[in-house]
Amino acid sequence: xxxxxxxxxxxxxxxxxxxxxxxxxxxxxxxxxxxxxxxxxxxxxxxxxxxxxxxxxxxxxxxxxxxxxxxxxxxxxxxxxxxxxxxxxxxxxxxxxxxxxxxxxxxxxxxxxxxxxxxxxxxxxxxxxxxxxxxxxxxxxxxxxxxxxxxxxxxxxxxxxxxxxxxxxxxxxxxxxxxxxxxxxxxxxxxxxxxxxxxx
Length: 200
Known about the structure:
The protein is mainly α and 200 residues long. The protein contains six helices and five strands. It has two domains: 1-40; 42-192, no CATH class.
């Protein structure tokens, strides 16, 4: 019995050192060397200060001169990512989509009279699975481009060029849909056409 206890204790100590200390340190060290940006949270810096992460959506509500992110069940809080767990037949879910649709149309229709309920992309009115999706669809961005161009007083073609430049393709060429990173696009907008000399 004493021998079994000693063997078990040695196994616990060795496994703790290998799997609890050596392995995490090795993985962290390799990540810092191979892809330090991703290992540190894919931070986005502007003028020497961190303004966010390219992996986490941010709230741009109340700022019509900026592209708006997808709706978020967490109000874009990165420490409590989740989605509204409602089914397609949920009254609560339908009401939420209706409210998001009304807000989207109120924000964008004054700048694009042809915009209708049927032409609003799904990602403009529904939460993402995490609640902090950093991307919107290209269709969503192109609708918002009309508002951005009018508010900033720049040609629509210039805004559309920025959208094209910041649209990521499908993962591995086949997975998912192309998306536009909202934070990076808004930073590019401020660099291209700053608002009264200010940056976000």
